[in-house]
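Below is how a single chain appears once it has passed through the pipeline. First comes the sequence as given, then the structure the pipeline wrote out for it. We keep one example in the README because the format questions we get most often are answered faster by looking than by reading.
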Amino acid sequence: MADPRTAVEAAIEGELRLLDPEVRRSPEQVGALLHPDFAEIGVSGRLWDRPTIIAALAARARPGSRPVTTSRIKGVQLTPDCVHLTFDTEHNGRMAHRSSLWHRTEDGWRLYFHQGTPFTPEQED
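Resulting structure:
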């Protein structure tokens, strides 16, 4: 197995890029980070596929958008080609626990699956 730190760092770097408002506005940049078979269960419970999330992110992201804040990001390399990340986000007062699976392809690390679950700080006590 390759150095797990390198794989986890690559997945974290990709995840943070996907949260960058500048990247989110670019269908090309987002598409380059998503696996062809990408799927997501959003914070709202909606099921997303690759084409719909690319379009939705581009439509929502505005110049000067407030960035998504991340915390408690950590990862583990499950196989030589799969990394699991968990982290929390806050954006415009909405908080979510997040889980992502990153898959190494010939083109590099790509987000294969993502899920967000809303939470409030009171739920953490």
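The radius of gyration is 14 Å.

See the next section for the split statistics.
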